[in-house]
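User: quick one, sequence for these tokens?
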């Protein structure tokens, strides 16, 4: 697995491959979300999390090109997958905060 990819295992056993969004992909997400969605910070953050999934159970996931593909991606990830993504992101935030506190001291 590439260094910048992380395997997330859901409670149900489903495996997700997570990779941070690139700047060009972020522009694509803004276009997919449209003028209303891209103004909503919460919505765009959630979409960004979903689009960070590159494979589900070792099957590559195409980057969404429109709202319908985004809906299909969200359904394929599922509630258990979304929880796994959130848990991973929360754990990385805690690690970053610990690193900052270590540097301060």
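Assistant:
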């Amino acid at each position: 697995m590439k260094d910048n990819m992380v395997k997330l295992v859901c409670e149900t056993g489903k495996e997700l491959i997570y990779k941070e969004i690139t700047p060009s992909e972020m522009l694509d997400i803004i276009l997919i979300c449209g003028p209303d969605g891209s103004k909503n910070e919460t919505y765009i953050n959630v979409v960004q999390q979903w689009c960070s999934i590159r494979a589900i159970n070792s099957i590559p996931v195409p980057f969404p090109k429109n709202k319908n593909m985004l809906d299909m991606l969200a359904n394929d990830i599922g509630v258990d997958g979304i929880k796994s993504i959130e848990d991973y992101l929360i754990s990385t935030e805690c690690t970053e905060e610990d690193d900052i506190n270590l540097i301060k001291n």
